[in-house]
Design goal:
This protein is about 40% helix and about 20% strand. By secondary structure, it is an alpha/beta fold. The longest helix has 21 residues, at about 380-400.
Length: about 400
């Protein structure tokens, strides 16, 4: 492998895995390593990653705050589609990967690197998401995936390698938590180890963003979310930037036990996997957006969106954010959002999101037409012909069954 690569951009967190990868790249490829650490709202101080990279001899270090871009250009477009994978998963990990991989490719171009590297394992979805994005944005890029190449195939071997090469190992990694974690501004996921048995429930101490519904306040929290053309722009009358708005919703939802999900999902690579997720603000956002669409979208457009959504969600889950079909679906989805403007009111109560009101300047809901009281705009006798026309094929089938 030596000599194949001159310079590589590593997606670097500063944790055990990527710190070992940093040193391994130098040993295995003899190349210069550039580190890139993205802040997508994982809630960790990132300067230690910079200092650790400096300590390990890295000359070019990129530490960048991508939170606003993450929510504005990735989370919000996804929520315009009401995207849910397999009926439950709000795609928190999936939607962050294309942004990180895109920035990696941009940095590789800036510094003249001929390769990129990620720390995803060979059994998960993230390797696919990273690499599909790499290839979409630079078809000729060299990709290094250490977990598919090296023989450091256990946590013990990683710690041993770190000790042999004087790589600092956090004390919690020696007695690490009984699950793996991935966090960003949209969610936290927990997988593996103690969570691998789908019959065994998660320990309450694991959760970081939400209180349990049982421990949530006994009084509902009322919140109003304002939308403009499908995107949330204000909470309780205060206009906020995309990242600030999602942060506010995370706090409100988390305090009320909203946003937990325990899922067995089908990975793109073929296996089933159990994951536990906290997506507090995203859960509110999904309910609010659907409520806003309920009075602003035409029935045909709304139903078509619902038909397209599973395909759209699957594309994101599988890593095809930059594929032409996702772009085409996004254009169709965005075209429906021009009048999705207005305000939704909700109560948050012990894990529940309860919509209590919605209003919009371009509402298609007409109280005059919908009323059960006497009206002059709807002739109820018209329904008779409507029903008979729709019943024609059913009547013909019934006649055929009776042989008449």
């Amino acid at each position: 492998m030596s000599g194949d690569v001159n310079k590589v951009v590593l997606a670097y967190s500063g944790g055990l895995d990527t710190s070992v990868i940093l040193r391994w790249l130098k040993d295995a490829y003899g190349c210069e390593v550039v580190t890139f650490t993205a802040d997508v709202g994982q809630g960790e101080e990132l300067e230690p990653a910079r200092k650790k990279a400096e300590m390990m001899g890295v000359k070019e270090i990129f530490v960048e705050d991508l939170k606003e871009e993450f929510v504005r250009d990735y989370v919000f477009p996804m929520f315009r589609a009401n995207a849910i994978y397999e009926g439950t998963y709000l795609l928190g990990t999936s939607i962050a990967r294309p942004l990180i991989a895109k920035r990696q490719i941009e940095i590789a171009r800036e510094v003249g690197a001929d390769a990129v590297c990620h720390g995803a394992t060979g059994k998960g979805n993230d390797q696919v998401r990273f690499e599909l994005t790499y290839y979409a944005l630079n078809p000729d890029i060299r990709i290094i995936a250490p977990w598919r190449e090296w023989d450091l195939n256990s946590r013990e071997r990683l710690i041993q390698y770190a000790g042999e090469h004087q790589i600092p190992v956090p004390s919690d990694k020696r007695g690490e938590p009984p699950y793996s974690m991935d966090a960003n501004l949209l969610h936290i996921s927990y997988e593996g180890k103690a969570l691998e048995d789908p019959w065994v429930g998660p320990d309450e101490s694991m959760f970081q963003l939400t209180v349990s519904p049982q421990a949530a306040p006994d009084v509902a929290t009322t919140v109003e979310i304002e939308f403009e053309q499908g995107d949330a722009v204000a909470v309780d009358g205060e206009r906020l930037s995309p990242a600030s708005l999602l942060t506010r919703l995370n706090k409100l939802a988390g305090e009320n036990g909203v946003g937990r999900a325990d899922i067995v999902e089908n990975r793109f690579v073929g296996m089933k996997s159990r994951g536990v997720y906290e997506t507090p603000g995203g859960t509110i956002l999904l309910h609010a957006h659907r409520a806003m669409e309920s009075i602003t979208l035409d029935r045909g457009a709304a139903h078509l969106k619902d038909e397209l959504m599973p395909r759209y969600a699957e594309l994101i889950y599988n890593g095809f954010w930059f594929a032409p079909e996702r772009t085409a679906l996004q254009a169709a989805i965005d075209s429906t959002q021009q009048n999705v403007t207005g305000t939704v009111r909700m109560d948050l109560y012990k894990g529940n999101v309860i919509v209590t009101g919605r209003r919009a300047p371009h509402s298609l809901y007409s109280q005059d037409i919908a009323t059960f009281e006497a009206d002059t705009v709807y002739n109820q006798r018209d329904a008779e012909g409507f029903i008979k026309l729709n019943a024609l094929r059913l009547r013909l089938a019934g006649m055929l069954e009776r042989g008449s």
